[in-house]
Structures are given as C-alpha cells and as structure tokens.
Design brief:
Elements (H helix, E strand, L loop, with lengths): L5 H8 L7 E4 L2 E4 L7 H11 L9 H11 L8 H17 L1 H10 L3 H5 L2
Helix pairs in contact: 2-3, 3-4, 4-5
Length: about 110
C-alpha cells in the first residue's frame, strides 16, 4: 500500500515519518517516496514466513534484510549497528549458517557477539 503523503502514512501505521516503509503481516506500507525500501520490505515479507517461532532481537530482524538486500551504511545509528552486527555474523558463520539461525533461532554466542 502506497500512502499519498507522510502524514497519512504516519496516521495509518503509527510509524514515525523517518521510516520509509514497513511490513505488517502480508501488507507492505510505503510512504510516497518509499519505493527504494521495497527490496528490504519484500525480504521482510519472505523472511517472516520462515522465522523462528520465538522471534528475533530487533537488530537481527532489521539487519538481515539490510544485508541480504545489499544495503550500504545507514545514517541512522541504530540501523547501522544492526547491519554491522549481521554482517559480522555472516562473515564469521556464513550466509547459510545465519539463514539457518533465522529459521531456528539465534544461538547465545551470536546474540552476544559485537
């Protein structure tokens, strides 16, 4: 769903105006200029269908789509930290291992890693 302006997006989703898009269930919500976020949000859509039942920490929930979409550094410190933490996991354990954790849950050592 593409909203006509930022105010309508914020009112409908409850998300701050700084968020370009978000996925809830089977719906991707986009601000008018949020099309660049579509690959990231489509990854959320696919990943959530295969996520571990217990869920994931926020940084992994946001970091994995960023890494898989090949996104560069974020100006937002919190998102950049999520991207870097996830990149470090992929570098150390491999993409296949990290995707397995998405389905099964992160092991304690991965949660602690920085």
């Amino acid at each position: 769903r593409i909203y006509p302006d930022v105010a309508v997006f914020r009112d409908a989703t409850g998300a701050p105006g700084s968020v370009a898009a978000l996925t809830r269930g089977r719906t991707i919500h986009l601000q008018p200029k949020g099309a660049s976020a579509l690959p990231h949000e489509m990854l959320h859509f696919v990943l959530e269908e295969n996520a571990a039942p217990a869920g994931h920490p926020w940084w992994f929930h946001e970091g994995l789509p960023m890494v898989l979409a090949g996104e560069g550094p974020s100006r937002d410190v919190k998102y950049e930290d999520a991207r870097r933490r996830t990149l470090a996991l992929v570098a150390r354990y491999g993409r296949v291992g990290v995707l397995r954790w998405w389905r099964l849950g992160l092991p304690a050592e991965a949660v602690r890693e920085r």
